[in-house]
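The authors assume throughout that readers already know how a fold can be written as discrete tokens. The format is easy to grasp once an entry is in front of the reader. For illustration, here is how one protein appears when written out as sequence plus structure tokens:
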Amino acid sequence: MALTATAASTAPAAAPERALPRRWGHRWPLLPLIAAVLLVAVPAEGAEAGSVFGVPSADLLSGAAVLVCAGRLLFLRRRPLTPAAAVVLGLPVVGLAVAAVTAADPVAALPGCVRYLQIFVLVPAAVLLLVRDARGFRAVAGALVLLAVVQGATGVHQYVTGSGASYRGEDIRAVGTFGPGDVMAMATVVGYGLVAAAAYALRPPAGAPRRLRVWAPVTAVLLVVPLTLSFSRGAWIATAAGTLAVIALTGLRQAVRVLAVLGAAGIVLVGGLGVGSEMISQRLTSITEVTGAPDRSVNDRYTMWAAAAGMWRERPATGVGLKGFPAHRDGHASIGLSAGSDTAGAGQEFRKQPLLSPHNMYLLVLSEQGLIGFTALAGSWAALLVGGVRRLVLARARRAAAVDCGLAAVGLMTWQTVDFLYADIGGPSTVLTGIVLGLAAWWALAEPEEATAR
């Protein structure tokens, strides 16, 4: 007993946290992550408080989280990543290093390399190491839901009052606080929140208060409204995929019941009550207009996809280099590509926004980093998704306490991998991508006792 007491008193991990209240003793390092999520809501246009030296506050807080994680590893002498986690999260570094070295202008490629490292390596690793248990996971996921509610309410107000971004001549597109220059950001935030809320609605945490069991499904349903009003087809598809993954992984019987209820509600709302404006119907129909008569945005997207594929065929192994897509776009795009995307509304005058990416993360990586970078980055994401599903199945079989976290992690990861078919990184909400990947990494790669604890 004496030896045990002595060892415990001299353990380096206990000393610095004992002075704090027990409840927050190992959770205060999550504060930069939670703050980074919530500060994404700071208006992007005309708000000096939203950035420091031109760097968004959310990105600065994500950097602070990385520094806190590094400090804890050094000060507390905690073991860093497991070998499996180091391989999975370190894979993108290989492709980035090759792309940076082989780029025609390494100096111009450096900012892109730093950004990729931040979003796909450093922030996910920090989340994995700072989230100590399921309660920490729920705190970060809860911040995502809170952000979605705030942005969703703002978006609905924009639609109702006609103060949103311009869409087909009317200022009705819900964009939240992100402005018309980043029309997919609000849809991304709301999609994250909806998937997380659906996970907790279908499998509430053990011992969860009654208010969570009531408000989780209500929140998930209400977030469908701003998601619809965003008119973002890619976010619609990704959210449907993420939600279906969550439903399917709750178990066959519950999945059948939930899908039956959703199907009946859809028939009543759309068929019986006629819910759904003509604009929404047209937007849904345009998803399938691939070879018929696509609108200009669809035509531009396919043109840029073809340009990205052309760049990859030109340099299949290493691509044209990080940040190289804009410089090589015109040399590979057809004359059908428009000069840019028209943006207006939500307090902004008309602007022509240049098309500087293919709006497909996989093709962007393939064109700029080649097959080496694509294999490394996509392989890392695939490992997170497969590992998350595997652990979720095992946790369900063992009736583990943190199944709700597994559903949220797999649902969010599914959302992200599907959304990357229609979007890429960029804008103020990009830091959330790194946090979502970190949550997925925690569930898939954390130590078993950490990922299954309450």
About this structure: The radius of gyration is 22 Å.
